[in-house]
Design brief:
The protein has 841 residues and is of the alpha+beta class. Among the domains are: 246 residues, no CATH class; 121 residues, no CATH class. The chain has 30 helices and 19 strands. The chain has a 5-stranded antiparallel β-sheet, with no helix packed on it. A 4-stranded mixed β-sheet has the order 6-5-7-8. Strands 9-14-18-17 form a 4-stranded antiparallel β-sheet, with no helix packed on it. A hairpin with a 6-residue loop joins strand 2 and strand 3. Helix 7 runs antiparallel to helix 8. The longest helix has 46 residues.
Length: 841
């Protein structure tokens, strides 16, 4: 006979889902009006992914390669759908509604699951999920368009939940949940966040080993660990296709070490130290976790007309003052720039410190250790010893940039400890003296710190920024008198506004600490009677009152636009239309009206020489750093002289740009582009092949030889070519006849055997060449292009991209995800059969 369904037990879980949906779409209310969030990086992504999307829409298949950025690269880290992993359907189900409302719902739901696994009261878990999900960083990256990152962050919490459940008695179900959410975490497609998840779990694992040895529970630990390993393997196998292609490409991407000779101090086996630590959180900047405006908020902040800056500029020009304050950079921290601070909430920091006094050591020490490590790593170049140690000795760490992102770790661990503390205060059996002691020291330490900056904000620093002089120089426009006026008015005004922000936000945080501390004092020390659920309700309101307004500073209704404008972010210019009407197959475009290597618009319409991606090919990045930027500067200098004979001569000397078939150069979006007739085309025959021993010589000769006649190659390819001299005649030809991103078809005619150079990136992990259907060897020439020896006569040459890592991987992913789902279903069935199917409360 079936048991009667107990509605009261299910009520908090049903309430959580409904409440999370309501709060998600209340925050993002413009979504209900049909509007969509305008995200800079998402717009840029649409540019890079345009060719891939068009191919997918036309064929229903994945191209796996695009030529829209950087002369070509695999699409694995741009836009590839891995259909083999059946967990993709689960991912779609749990992301309810349009983004970013779906992202916030997922963040809330994942946080709720984690708190339940920690045996936090279900109603408090709902309130606690608000504290976890509303961390300012989540909203800052949503606005930026880092969609894969926010989804990956959302899955961190339930992965940890599964591991904790496994270690706390729900072995089979916990391991199954771990496997499911690990699969979803990897599926999100942000390896850096997955890596930080592993750091958290390693620290938790070390703690569990310590306590297992101490409590003589080694056998239980080994069983739990074994189950976790089994399900983790299936979680990985379900994503085998994604992982295999990404790892295969990693050796060729800029995340790998360059082959060029460089200062050994900058080499880590991955990204250079300088590049990886380009965004390092300041040591004192860490106080933004408690005080959001401690370092000025963001690099683009809207001031009011009550600000010192407006008052100072209004004396010169009111219209100028009104425009200036709309996006002034008040940020004055050590990072190059920032979209906003990582703010965890004043109440959460207060409760975190309180948790250090009252939470079980089995939780607090590993949570504290993970928190400290995440903060120290975020300092990057400001804490050089630890950063270099991790980059040189910890596997995989040197593959990631923007070290400030490690603050994702305390973003998870700090609220966990805070909510465990609050759960113990409300539902634990603590004596008054224990609570009073914890309350006293946490209030003194956290509240006292905020009070200190209210009273003496100058302790935060001198409030100056390098950007201040940029504003002065930019707006004085060479006028020495105006420059002097701005130096004496604008700079002090900006500093005064920063000081005001520090004091105001410190006072704000002090108020929230006082409210939380005072409320706990009333109900636990003064014994004011109140229903526990009412207490939870008060804290839920406090969490939202603390976090919501700060998040709205960075992501609010003004950031939304019409769906059409968001989905089609770029409009073709006169220059774009001129190229579209005249361009041939796979001819490339250099856009000098923007930063070419931070640009998504050109890729939206053309085969761009530039683009925007953090993992372009290593050799292409080397070419940009060592040769291409020099050629672009040389071209810019020639254009300034307005002399066509000099310009033609310069274009003919641009070896790198010409071998990359740079046919069009946009100088003004409102005019037709410059046509470069010196571009070498899609393919050409050369008369000679020169072999060299290393990458340095490859690059040197590629930059200096006449590439119309001579090709350069590494001597490791010498075994694939019998001759180094190829006789030809003027009638020999090779042309591109048909173009698809993953399939290029050429025809050739020559009187003798010839070496053809193709203006396409050499990537041996998937590109295959055939001549009249017979496979032929591809060699790397001219530092990063493809070369092919073609017999005499007329032939059809086909390059096709068919990486086995993807196609074989998809089969493995299908099998792995199917088995994982079956095992999960079995775990749920067994747990239900035992009468313990609910998540621990």
């Amino acid at each position: 006979m079936l048991k009667k369904f107990d509605v009261s037990k299910a009520l908090p879980y049903l309430t959580a889902i409904i409440f999370f949906l309501v709060i998600s779409y209340a925050y993002f209310s413009p979504l209900l009006e049909g509007k969509r969030l305008s995200q800079h990086d998402y717009s840029t992504y649409l540019g890079g992914a345009k060719e891939l999307k068009d191919y997918r829409d036309a064929t229903g298949e994945e191209a796996l390669w695009t030529n829209r950025m950087f002369v070509g690269m695999p699409s694995y880290l741009i836009s590839t759908r891995y259909k083999g992993n059946l967990l993709q359907y689960v991912n779609k189900i749990v992301q309810v509604g349009p983004r970013p409302g779906s992202y916030l719902f997922l963040l809330l739901l994942g946080s709720f699951v984690l708190l339940l696994a920690l045996k936090v009261n279900p109603w408090l878990s709902i309130a606690g999920a608000l504290a976890l999900a509303f961390s300012s960083y989540n909203f800052i990256i949503i606005l930026a368009g880092h969609n894969t990152k926010v989804v990956a962050i959302a899955y961190v919490a339930p992965v940890i939940a599964g591991v904790i459940m496994t270690m706390r008695g729900k072995k089979f179900l916990g391991a199954a949940i771990t496997g499911i959410f690990l699969s979803l975490e990897i599926l999100a497609g942000h390896p850096q966040i997955t890596y930080y998840t592993l750091i958290i779990l390693v620290i938790f694992g070390i703690s569990e080993v310590y306590f297992a040895i101490r409590q003589q529970q080694i056998k239980d630990l080994l069983i739990s660990g074994g189950l976790l390993m089994v399900f983790a393997v299936f979680g990985v196998l379900s994503n085998y296709s994604r992982l295999a292609t990404t790892m295969e490409y990693d050796d060729y991407s800029m995340r790998s070490q360059t082959e060029l000779t460089q200062d050994n101090e900058t080499q880590t086996g991955g990204l250079s130290y300088e590049y990886a630590t380009g965004w390092s959180y300041g040591v004192d900047e860490t106080l933004t976790l408690l005080i959001p405006g401690f370092k000025g908020g963001s690099s683009t902040y809207e001031l009011s007309k009550n600000s010192h800056t407006y008052d100072a500029l209004a004396k010169l020009d009111r219209n100028f003052a009104a425009n200036f304050i709309k996006s002034v950079g008040l940020y004055w921290g050590s990072q190059t720039s920032t979209s906003g601070p990582v703010y965890l909430g004043a109440i959460i920091i207060f409760l975190f410190v309180m948790g250090l006094f009252i939470v079980d050591p089995r939780y607090k020490w590993w949570l504290l250790a993970a928190t400290i490590l995440g903060i120290l790593l975020s300092w990057g170049s400001n804490f050089e010893g630890l950063t270099k140690f991790f980059m040189n000795h910890v596997p995989g760490y040197n593959k990631f940039r923007t070290v400030s992102m490690t603050l994702v770790i305390p973003q998870i661990t700090v609220p966990i400890l805070a909510l465990l503390a609050l759960n113990k205060v409300i539902f634990g059996n603590l004596e008054k003296k224990e609570i009073l002691r914890a309350l006293k020291w946490s209030t003194i330490s956290v509240g006292g710190l905020t009070l200190l900056f209210v009273l003496i904000p100058s302790l935060a620093g001198n409030f100056s920024s390098d950007m201040d002089m940029y504003y002065v120089n930019a707006y004085s426009n060479g006028n020495p008198e105006l420059r002097k006026v701005l130096m004496n008015s604008l700079v002090p005004a900006l500093e005064a506004d920063r000081e005001t922000m520090v004091r105001a936000d410190s006072f704000r945080s002090l108020v929230f600490v006082a409210l939380a501390a005072g409320f706990i004092y009333l109900i636990k020390i003064r014994s004011v009677k109140m229903n526990p659920n009412m207490v939870i309700g008060v804290f839920a309101v406090l969490f939202l009152a603390d976090m919501w307004p700060v998040d709205k500073r960075f992501l609010n209704d003004d950031n939304f636009d019409t769906q059409k404008k968001v989905d089609q972010p770029y409009t073709a210019s006169i220059a774009d239309n001129a190229i579209i009407q005249s361009e041939g197959l796979n001819e490339r475009v250099l856009n000098l009206t923007t930063s070419p290597f931070q640009d998504g618009q050109t890729s939206y319409f053309h085969q761009s020489l530039g683009g925007y991606h953090g993992a372009k090919m290593r050799r292409y990045q080397d070419l940009i750093n060592t040769r291409m930027m020099d050629e672009i500067q040389m071209l810019a200098g020639s254009l300034q002289q307005m002399n066509m004979s000099i310009l033609d001569s310069t274009l003919n000397e641009l070896n790198i740009l010409n071998m990359l078939n740079t046919k069009y150069i946009i100088l003004d979006p409102n005019r037709a582009p410059l046509v470069n007739y010196s571009a070498l085309g899609n393919a050409w025959f050369v008369n000679k092949l020169v072999f060299v021993p290393n990458a340095d010589q490859e690059l040197a000769l590629t930059s200096s030889l006449n590439l119309r006649e001579v090709a350069v190659s590494d001597r490791k390819f010498s075994g694939m070519v019998k001759d180094s001299v190829f006789a030809g005649n003027p009638q020999d030809r090779i042309t591109l006849d048909d173009y698809l991103p993953n399939k290029l078809t050429y025809s050739s005619s020559s009187s003798n055997e010839r070496l053809a150079v193709f203006s396409e990136i050499f990537y041996e992990k998937g590109w295959k060449a055939t001549i009249d259907g017979q496979e032929a060897d591809i060699i790397r020439v001219d530092y990063l292009l493809r070369g092919l020896v073609i017999p005499a006569g007329e032939h059809t040459i086909v390059f096709e991209f068919r990486p086995s890592s993807y196609y074989t991987g998809e089969k493995i992913s299908l099998a792995g995800s199917l088995l994982l789902l079956l095992l999960f279903a079995g775990a749920v069935y067994l747990e239900t059969k035992k009468g313990k199917g609910s998540v621990p409360a």
